[in-house]
């Protein structure tokens, strides 16, 4: 299959591009490399040293004989995007290319506006490009479990059957996102659903939970193929941060009481979920939603599991509760459904002590690169 991976230089996109290429698909990466520029803006870095995108794909070709094409450019430049569609004629368009940090979107007005413009308008351009150039192309869009928030009822996959005043309907599940970033995913959802309805586009929205881990079989083949790993208070996510904090002897930063519960998955499952979606395309005009996660944990649970794994490696890790920089519920019900991907063949990699120890060892390998001042959160929601 001819597959475009937009955002293919990022944390989820790079391993996905390699995995799909390994499986024999014709993969083309589209990325404007903005994530590398944001590292400069934040005076931060990836824990792992990452090669340039060109070096990465050259090494992949050298090791496997497989070609991954690269287009460096922005989804918000429609002439550029049109050219990519005309040249590559994608059968699937995997869309990772958005600003994905909630704290980054909450820094100030400029960062909120940038995030919403970049994400919402970039996605709208992708919808128009599919309509104009490849109406049969399957859009596989990365959404987020955070679109739903934490309602006091079970979270269904995209839709919920409602009975109201004696009448029934199946309606989009209510959205209660927790940041200007998470809101962009809700806006994207609405735009995609509408485009499917009016133009007959086929789309799958992958409402992904928080991704942990670093490596896949492919990224491990050579240091030049290494994936990026974020740890700072802006781009680092809960479990990866706890592992890295433990590796450098920093207290694990549980925000508030730590009762916040979220859906999680291993990066190894991210790549497989995208493959499953590509192999089982949505129907023409269908807007399909998969909840892409494998397990749910509270933040406190994750810190405790990390502490235990660290102890097995003779590392003394401490958990500290710090004032929550976000405005969010710390004590709530959380039960989300995730049957669609499992029914299509996903075999989850669960969060075991072995997985945590492997992550700790990976963090230890590069711990000298960590800029300690970047670890504590500085962005607040207020
Ligand atoms: P990332 O920041 O590491 O990668 C995103 C990539 O997209 C970067 O390489 C960036 O340069 C590129 N990009 C951004 N805007 C672009 C634009 N306008 N044009 C072209 N390229 C652009 O993020 P990630 O962690 O790999 O996340 C990928 C996607 O998955 C995002 O949409 C994110 O919202 C979603 N997601 C991520 C997680 C997670 O835990 N990392 C969880 C759920 C959903
Ligand atoms: N948290 C801590 N301590 C930390 C970091 C985070 O307690 O050091 C808490 C947060 O307060 C929050 C939870 O952990 O309650 C998750 O935060 P996070 O930074 O790990 O994840 P989030 O901001 O939700 O965003 C990440 C990705 C985003 C993706 C989302 C999936 O950056 O791209 O959309 O996970 S989800 O959470 O399902 O919406």
Tell me what you see in this structure.
The structure is a single chain. 38% of the residues lie in helices and 19% in strands. The chain has a 7-stranded parallel beta sheet, sandwiched between helices. It has 382 residues and is of the alpha/beta class. The longest helix is centred in the first third of the chain and has 25 residues, at 109-133. It is built from 12 helices and 14 strands. Helix 1 packs across helix 9 (267-279), helix 8 (238-247) packs parallel to helix 10 (299-312) and helix 8 (238-247) packs across helix 12 (353-365). It has a single domain (2-374), classed as NAD(P)-binding Rossmann-like Domain (Rossmann fold, 3-Layer(aba) Sandwich). It has helices at residues 13-22, 34-41, 53-64, 78-88, 102-105, 109-133, 180-199, 238-247, 267-279, 299-312, 339-343, 353-365; strands spanning 2-6, 26-31, 68-72, 92-95, 138-144, 159-164, 167-172, 202-208, 210-212, 252-255, 261-266, 287-292, 295-298, 319-322. The model has no long low-confidence stretch (mean pLDDT 98). The site of sulfoquinovose-uridine-C1,5'-diphosphate has 21 residues, from helix 8, strand 10 and strand 11. Nicotinamide-adenine-dinucleotide (NAD) binds at residues 7, 9-13, 31-35, 74-76, 96-100, 118, 122, 142, 144, 208, 210-211, 237. This is NAD-dependent epimerase/dehydratase family protein. Residues 3-291 form the NAD-dependent epimerase/dehydratase domain. Belongs to the NAD(P)-dependent epimerase/dehydratase family.
């Amino acid at each position: 299959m001819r597959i475009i991976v937009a955002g293919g230089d990022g944390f989820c996109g790079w391993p996905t591009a390699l995995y799909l290429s390994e499986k024999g698909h014709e993969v083309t990466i589209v990325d404007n490399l903005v994530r590398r520029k944001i590292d400069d803006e934040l005076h931060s870095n990836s824990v792992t040293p990452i090669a340039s995108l060109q070096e990465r794909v050259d090494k992949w070709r050298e090791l496997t004989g497989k070609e991954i094409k690269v287009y460096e450019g922005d989804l918000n430049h429609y002439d550029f995007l049109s050219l990519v569609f005309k040249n590559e004629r994608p059968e699937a368009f995997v869309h990772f290319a958005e600003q994905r940090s909630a704290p980054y979107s909450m820094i100030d007005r400029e960062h909120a506006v940038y995030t919403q413009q970049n994400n919402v308008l970039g996605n709208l351009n992708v919808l128009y490009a599919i309509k104009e150039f490849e109406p049969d192309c399957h859009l596989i869009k990365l959404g987020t479990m955070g679109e739903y928030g934490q309602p006091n009822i079970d979270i269904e996959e995209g839709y919920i059957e409602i009975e109201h005043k004696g009448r029934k309907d199946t309606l989009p599940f209510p959205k209660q996102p927790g940041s200007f970033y998470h809101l962009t995913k809700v806006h994207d959802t609405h735009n995609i659903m509408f485009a499917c309805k009016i133009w007959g586009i086929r789309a799958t929205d992958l409402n992904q939970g928080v991704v942990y881990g670093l490596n896949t079989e492919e990224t491990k083949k050579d240091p030049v193929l290494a994936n990026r790993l974020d740890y700072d208070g802006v781009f680092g996510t809960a479990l990866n941060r706890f592992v890295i904090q433990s590796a450098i002897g920093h207290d694990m930063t549980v925000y508030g009481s730590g009762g916040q519960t979220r859906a999680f998955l291993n990066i190894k499952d991210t790549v497989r979920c995208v493959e499953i979606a590509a192999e089982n395309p949505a129907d023409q005009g269908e807007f399909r939603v998969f909840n892409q996660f494998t397990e749910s944990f509270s933040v406190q649970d994750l810190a405790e599991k990390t502490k235990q794994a660290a102890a097995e490696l003779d590392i003394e890790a401490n958990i500290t509760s710090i004032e929550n920089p976000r405005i969010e519920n710390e004590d709530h019900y959380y039960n989300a459904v995730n049957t669609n991907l499992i029914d299509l063949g996903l075999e989850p990699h669960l969060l075991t002590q072995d997985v945590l120890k492997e992550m700790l060892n990976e963090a230890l390998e590069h711990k000298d690169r960590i800029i300690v001042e970047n670890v504590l959160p500085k962005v607040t929601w207020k």
